Amino acid sequence: MATKQDKLLEMSIAEFKKKNKLDTVAPLLDARVEFSYIPLKKIVIDEQVRSKDDVEEELESLTASIKEKGVVVPVLVVSEGNDKYRLVAGERRYRASVAANTHNIPARILPDGISRQDIMTIQLLENLQRKDLNPVDEARAYYDYYAIRTGKKGVEPQEIVSHMITFSSKPDNLENELTDILSEIVKIAGKSIKYIERLVTILKLPNEALETLRNKQINMSQALIFVEHINHPRFNDVLAKAVRNKLTAKGVEKAFAGKKRGGGIAFYKKRIVQVRGDVEKNLSNISKQYAKDLLSEIKEFEKILHGIIKES
Questions:
Q1: Which of 14, 90, 259, 295 has the highest count of CB atoms within 10 angstroms of its CB?
Q2: Residues 106 and 40 in one domain
Q3: In this structure, is the dihedral angle defined by the CA atoms of residues 171, 177, 178 and 182, taken in order, positive or negative?
Q4: Which positions ≥6 away from 41 have C-beta within 8 Å?
Q5: Tens-digit pLDDT profile for residues 232-266
Q6: Same domain assignment for residues 272 and 123
Q7: In this structure, are 186 and 234 located in the same domain?
Q8: pLDDT tens track for 143-159
């Protein structure tokens, strides 16, 4: 008997494109389609579209390129009336253009009445079609699509991974909305749910580890091993050693399996500093409820530490 997942995946790519108007919107990602030059000051940025993984080095490189060659691929916008346009895709190009002190940017204006879901589909397609796409950015693209479609700002990567595992093994146990969203991601990406699950899993890593993956200092196989050992006392030491000595995945496994050599207290201090740093970097993305949940966890942590102090 066909499962809910089987029925959803029976839909061909052509049918999916037709249902989701991709035949209409996909050409907008083609650089040959006509575009207009719009003043940067007339473009409004939607906070939900704002990329979380842009780093200054990337922007510096893109800014230099724009100063020399201009913006090659137009950004995508929708008209808001009153001579204003909301950015749909291309914030890196927009920000780099601002940094390059340009006044206008090439843009394609999406059709009036385009739905929010169509816009999100375009954003995901645009992110996945980037020439410089790396595993971290690709994982972020899937994460952002899921977070916006579900309305769960600041959702934990593990929650998404758990839903993907259920989607693969027992799709009938998932809510219809979640099944539809994950089916959309699979269709748009053209990748298996297992492949996407592995990518989203790496988002559990601290920023320092993600940067090493983004910069190709470690690979996906190594990143997944670091995820498995994320709470290991020597996590940071092994990461530094993997980068410094160019360890293989097997070498990383051996490093974690080796004897622990002191530094336990230093490890916990580093982790606390990392968590504090991550919170400070993502203040705009943390809801009041999420902050309360964090405080609750901190209070429980304090109880444990006070208990240790009393016993000693």
A1: 90
A2: yes
A3: positive
A4: none
A5: 988 999 999 999 999 999 999 999 987 554 455 66
A6: no
A7: no
A8: 988 888 888 878 899 99
- Whose tokens are 């839903």? That residue is 163
189-192 contacts: CB < 8 A, separation 24 or more? Answer: 189/124, 189/128, 189/142, 190/13
Residue 81, in any domain of the structure: yes
Strands (E), 15-71: 36-39, 43-45
Q: What is the mean pLDDT of residues 216-227?
A: 94
84-89 and 43-45 strand pairing: parallel
pLDDT at position 24? 46
Residue 187, burial from CB neighbour count under 10 angstroms (0-12, 13-18, 19+): buried
Phi, psi of 134 (to 5 degrees): -120, 170
Q: Counting every residue, how long is the chain?
A: 312
93-to-67, 109, 155, 260 alpha-carbon distances in Å: 12, 16, 27, 46
Look at residues 84, 114, 144 and tell me which one is the last residue of a structural domain.
114
Give the type of residue at 136.
Answer: V
Exposure string for 218-247, b = 16+ CB within 10 A, e = fewer = beeebbbbbbebeeebbbbbbbeebeeeeb
Whether residue 122 is found in the same domain as residue 238: no
What is the rounded distance in angstroms from the CA atom of residue 58 to the CA atom of residue 183?
32
Whether 203 and 157 have beta carbons less than 8 Å apart is answered as yes
What one-letter code names the amino acid at 163?
H
Q: Based on the domain organization, do 106 and 220 belong to the same domain?
A: no
Domain that holds residue 15: 4-23+118-203
CA distances from 13 to 8, 10, 20, 41 (A): 11, 9, 10, 39
Q: Both 109 and 182 in a single domain?
A: no
